[in-house]
Design a protein that fits this description.
The protein has one helix at about 115-125; strands spanning about 1-10, 15-30, 35-45, 50-55, 65-75, 75-85, 90, 105, 110-115, 130-135, 160-165. By secondary structure, the protein is mainly beta. Mean pLDDT is about 85; it is low at about 140-155.
């Protein structure tokens, strides 16, 4: 397990703590299939809140399979769960209390889970001359959009394209 303290630095140089972020990576077996499991938890300081995210992936490709978010703030819990399919991302209709069970986002190109960008970016074979375009998607974004275009959308849509290039 890795823990990070996230904070901002004020103009006068003081640090203001935002939250404690914990990430744990493990391998699980479900229905005889080996899966990569990333569990994340954010413990916010003010206002007090807890965000828990569980994501499952194909271990060799980091192709996302499922993503479940649970946010507890002011005594209220909100759950959102998604299946990442080859041509779309859909709400999990079998997840109890899923507020996003009717969610559908079509995608002509498979997308990686934005909530696990740190793991994806660390796995890239960065070297001189390396270049990549990565189609990330955050299904908790406010407005679904047609992801068939190559241009990035505003962040509020949940879609984000990252281009990486090292000097050649």
């Amino acid at each position: 397990m890795h823990r990070y303290v996230r904070y901002t630095v004020t103009p006068d140089g003081h640090r203001k703590m935002i939250d404690i972020w914990s990430r744990e990576i493990s391998f699980d077996t479900q229905n005889g299939r080996k899966l990569l499991h990333i569990h994340q938890q954010w413990d916010e300081i003010s206002p007090s809140a807890v965000l828990i995210q569980d994501s499952l992936f194909e271990p060799d490709t980091l192709r996302p399979l499922t993503h479940v978010k649970s946010l507890t703030r002011e005594g209220k819990n909100t759950v959102g769960g998604y299946h990442f399919l080859p041509a779309k991302i859909v709400g999990m209709d079998d997840l109890r209390n899923n507020s996003r069970k009717d969610f559908v986002q079509l995608s002509k190109e498979p997308a990686y889970n934005w909530e696990t960008d740190m793991e994806m970016l660390q796995s890239l074979p960065l070297a001189q001359g390396y270049a990549a375009n990565i189609n990330f998607y955050d299904p908790a974004g406010i407005h679904p959009r047609d992801m068939s275009t190559a241009s990035p959308a505003p962040r509020r849509s949940g879609a984000l394209m990252i281009a990486i290039s090292t000097a050649g």
